[in-house]
Write a structure and sequence with these properties.
This protein is of the alpha+beta class. It is built from 20 helices and ten strands.
Length: 504
């Protein structure tokens, strides 16, 4: 049957839109249908669990992650139930929503995991810690876990394809949180009614503004998916107890569509798999080779290429990046955000500044999740000089590629024009990052493991590395006890004991 396009609009209360016609109910039907998962999809789920772990472990001692963990360890479980926290021993368990809080923050902190860009932005892998945490607490198998992760990706990707949040300055957690709830429901094999209510609750409580990604971007950017995970897990818990939700959450006359998104005349088309159709959305997503906002990935690759034609960087007069609407307005000069040009800006702001990113990639010919953001490098006069010579502009060609419906055509690149002081012009263009599925060097299992090794080699033992990789690669066949061991243990870890700094 393939994908089915569902029309979405605002309905008045008098119309009394039936449950079966509501988007949340249609999503619940997809989530609850247990269809066969192909080896191709299963392998990608394994890749993303490895990817999540690699970036989480690398971020464990960064302040937002350490503080999230410090909050979480104040909620232990002593009944052999509960979930693991990244880095901590497997025999220590914590309440699932708090483990998800700590682990989601760790995964998100470096902005270094998977992405999907369409009508809106997303990091679908943000759902994985929430689903794993609940699986560990409720003794679910690897097969159950696989089903939940696949469902969360399916819901997330298809919402992102159809509904633009950022145009209305709504943060993308409003797509993430319902997807996290959907993944948990699928993993627990809940009925359609419960899943429907959980998805509605998750959306209702997760609407927030994009100021989290504007101005001086704070550590809240890392906490956003963690907050979504807690909200989603709690929403599912309430729904399992028979509690309902605001309804219809998408279509109602006082709903998110009517008053937060496109208004009473809203008109969206949301694709979802038809009955019996395999959930394959995860295969349309892509991870990052470089620790920076996704729309910079291809441009970093091109900077490495272009620098070979420049002998003296001080002789660069200016650099113009022609790119998509999104890249120009979110991480480019179209954002009209002076912090993106500020040497005193936070790391979170710098990884959302293509001007900074391109300058450092051009100068260094490498990108490193720590070194490239080093304060000495950021404030180096050579960096600042080149950084401030860079500007962006939108070109319809790149915007059209960004919004292409065909995943084989969709691209997130740009054209760079470097003008030298002597009038020489150096030009190049790139459509996709090298690591993209349609790029020059698509990421495969060995690349995910290679990324894991680079990011964790000085933090974990070889024995622990091998244990984790071997465990995850057998995902479908894992017992409930083995699922409890999906974690990477670190020998020495700060903020892993009770403290008195906060409320918890």
């Amino acid at each position: 049957m393939g994908m089915i396009n569902h029309k979405l609009r605002v309905h008045t209360s008098r119309e009394n839109l039936s449950k079966k016609e509501q988007l949340a109910h249609k999503i619940a039907n997809v989530v609850c249908e247990d269809v066969e998962i192909s080896s191709e999809v299963e392998n990608m789920v394994i890749n993303r669990i490895i990817d999540n772990a690699s970036v989480a472990i690398a971020a464990l001692e960064r302040d937002p992650v350490a503080n999230a963990r410090a909050m979480a360890v104040n909620h232990p479980r002593h009944d052999n139930k509960g979930a693991s926290i990244f880095g901590m021993p497997n025999d220590q368990k914590f309440h699932a929503e708090w483990a998800a809080w700590a682990n989601c923050t760790a995964v998100r902190e470096l902005d270094y995991h998977d992405t999907f860009l369409a009508a809106d932005y997303s990091h679908p892998g943000d759902s994985i810690p929430a689903v794993i945490a609940v699986a560990q607490q409720l003794n679910k198998s690897g097969k159950d876990l696989l089903r939940g992760i696949v469902a969360s990706y399916e819901v997330h990707v298809n919402l992102v394809k159809a509904i633009c949040l950022h145009k209305h300055k709504i943060d993308h957690v409003a797509h993430l949180c319902p997807a996290q709830a959907a993944g948990v429901c699928a993993m627990l094999n809940l009925d359609i009614e419960t899943t429907y209510q959980a998805i509605q609750q998750a959306l209702h409580v997760s609407v927030s503004t994009r100021q989290s990604r504007k101005g001086e971007i704070s550590s809240w950017k890392a906490y956003v998916p963690a907050h979504g995970a807690k909200l989603a897990i709690e929403a599912v818990d309430r729904a399992m107890r028979g509690e309902g939700a605001p309804s219809p959450i998408y279509e109602g006359e006082d709903s998110i569509l009517a008053w937060i998104l496109d208004g009473p005349d809203s008109d969206y088309t949301v694709p979802l798999p038809g009955p019996g159709e395999e959930k394959r959305a995860i295969l349309e997503t892509y991870t990052k080779e470089h620790s920076a906002e996704y729309q910079s990935q291809a441009l970093i690759d091109m900077a490495f290429r272009m620098r070979k034609h420049i002998s003296d960087f001080s002789q660069i007069k200016n650099i113009l990046i022609e790119t998509s609407h999104h890249t120009h307005n979110v991480i480019g000069t179209g954002a009209k955000d002076p912090q993106k040009m500020d040497p005193n800006a936070s790391r979170e702001t710098l990884d959302h500044s293509i001007m900074f990113i391109f300058a450092v990639a051009l100068l260094d010919g490498r990108w490193h999740h720590v070194d490239s953001y080093d304060r000495g490098k950021v404030q180096n006069p050579e960096t600042i000089s080149l950084w401030h010579k860079i500007s962006t502009i939108e070109k319809p060609y790149w915007t059209d590629l960004y919004h292409a419906k065909d995943p084989n055509k969709k691209a997130f690149g740009g054209k760079v024009i470097i003008t030298m002081n002597d009038g020489k012009i150096i030009e190049d263009k790139i459509e996709r990052a090298n690591a993209h599925p349609a790029g020059e060097r698509p990421f495969k299992r060995e690349n995910y493991i290679g990324k894991f090794d680079i990011l964790t080699k000085e933090l974990i033992t070889k024995k622990e590395r091998n244990r984790f990789i071997e465990l995850v690669e057998n995902l479908r066949n894992l017992s409930a006890e083995q699922v409890k061991e999906i974690n990477v243990q670190v020998a020495e870890l700060s903020n892993s004991t009770l403290d008195t700094k906060g409320i918890f």
